[in-house]
Recover the amino acids of this structure.
């Protein structure tokens, strides 16, 4: 599930690494309590590589449009999210026009509709957020640590930010359309001439709107300079255009076919913007009893078909509408926020040292051994790259908020986000928040460990 741009850069810059040996960590893996909410997410990620102008995702009605199958007829009202990630490449290499990404909203009603932009961010790979190498664990209090545009947009939205290029709201007159986004993906001056843009927005509308994401090459001014397409030009593409190409690989059906699993990329409306979970011993419990000394338990994160880590739980958001050649579910839950509360309880008679971490085990559906498998030397592929917020009371009883940027490779056990010295009978609430980063590869786990007692 690594993005095309990242795969290319890895191939150019990463030397081969020797094979790693597997290590099995005995630990109980539990399904994650809670569920996704019902907030619809406009999810535009297919085709990832866009070489021709066209419609990326349209939830407009098909009536009166030249290619009815390019329109999914899904109205939004109230809270909804917009996620878009696409890549442009000069094809042929001398064609260095910028590809513009347009997101248009239409008000089909007879009254004005106000759309509030609650949080929003949109960044390019170059120059905004290049894929630089970072340590596996970095404090990120100010939000300046990131690698890749997906990492940067989720970092901003986690902090409640609205990038300055976005207004606080737009008002769409009756029967009219307005651009929510109209930004370029430039390739000129880049080697190779390849660039990507990731966008994430949280919106609230007081009336019905339709949305579409579109791709169009920059228009040319009389002096030869580039200009952004106008709303009329975008509307014409929406009404008369077809789906953008080249199309991505068609996914394999979710009911096993015996063939290798192709998840596909998402183009449609997914159900769920946030997963809230209270991690406790039982459905009616109030506390999460820490493991015995030297023991570990974990909860699956972003588990998916073929990668449920023995829990049988599929966290991938279901699709409310989609194109038939795109993903059946929003595998990876890109841009979805996980809000996890762990009311830890030391029910032992001794003080215990407890840690909470995120880990990236090898993907399995059924565990072949009693525990999770890791590499003693993690593989070269980065599978998680993003910022995690942890809130807790430290050993002196002071409230702490930490932002930690993680870079985890395939099979990497990870380091503790927080370590607590819990006296006998101590209760401590730990809250873990992150938006699943768009350039990550699931699944991960949230792990609670009690340090073994020294003899």
């Amino acid at each position: 599930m690594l993005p095309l741009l990242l795969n290319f850069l890895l191939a150019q810059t990463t030397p081969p690494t020797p094979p790693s040996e597997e290590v099995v960590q005995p630990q109980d893996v539990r399904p994650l309590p809670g569920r996704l909410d019902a907030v619809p997410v406009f999810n535009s990620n297919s085709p990832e590589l866009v070489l021709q102008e066209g419609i990326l995702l349209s939830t407009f009605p098909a009536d009166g449009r030249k290619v009815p199958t390019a329109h999914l007829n899904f109205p939004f009202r109230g809270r909804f999210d917009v996620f878009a990630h696409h890549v442009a490449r000069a094809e042929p290499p001398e064609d260095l026009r910028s590809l513009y990404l347009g997101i248009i909203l239409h008000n089909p009603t007879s009254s004005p509709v106000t759309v509030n932009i609650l949080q929003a961010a949109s960044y390019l790979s170059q120059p905004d957020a290049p894929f630089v190498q970072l340590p596996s664990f970095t404090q990120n209090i100010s939000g300046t640590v990131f690698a890749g545009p997906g990492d940067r947009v989720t970092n901003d939205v986690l902090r409640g930010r609205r990038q300055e290029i976005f207004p606080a709201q737009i008002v769409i007159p009756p029967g009219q359309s307005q651009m929510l986004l109209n930004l370029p993906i430039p390739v000129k001056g880049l080697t190779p001439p390849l660039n990507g843009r990731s966008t994430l927005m949280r919106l609230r509308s007081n009336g019905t709107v339709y949305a579409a994401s579109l791709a169009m090459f920059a228009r040319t001014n009389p002096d030869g300079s580039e200009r952004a397409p106008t709303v009329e030009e975008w509307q014409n593409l929406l009404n008369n255009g077809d789906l953008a190409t080249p199309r991505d690989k068609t996914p394999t059906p979710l009911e096993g076919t015996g063939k290798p699993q192709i998840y596909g990329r998402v183009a449609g409306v997914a159900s769920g913007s946030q997963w809230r979970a209270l991690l406790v011993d039982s459905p009616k419990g109030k506390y999460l009893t820490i493991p015995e000394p030297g023991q570990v338990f974990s909860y699956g994160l972003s588990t998916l078909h073929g990668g449920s880590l023995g829990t049988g739980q599929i966290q991938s958001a279901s699709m409310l509408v989609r194109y038939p050649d795109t993903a059946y579910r929003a595998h990876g839950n890109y841009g979805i926020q996980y809000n996890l509360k762990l009311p830890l309880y030391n029910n032992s008679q001794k003080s215990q040292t407890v840690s909470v971490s995120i880990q990236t085990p090898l993907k399995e559906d059924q565990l072949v051994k009693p525990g999770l498998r890791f590499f003693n030397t993690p593989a070269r592929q980065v599978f998680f790259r993003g910022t995690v917020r942890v809130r807790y009371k430290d050993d002196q009883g002071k409230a702490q908020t930490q932002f930690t940027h993680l870079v985890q490779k395939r099979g990497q056990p990870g380091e503790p986000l927080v370590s607590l010295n819990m006296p006998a009978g101590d209760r401590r609430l730990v809250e873990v928040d992150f938006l699943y980063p768009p350039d990550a590869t699931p699944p991960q786990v949230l792990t609670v460990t009690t340090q073994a007692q020294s003899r």
About this structure: The two ends are 45 Å apart (CA to CA).
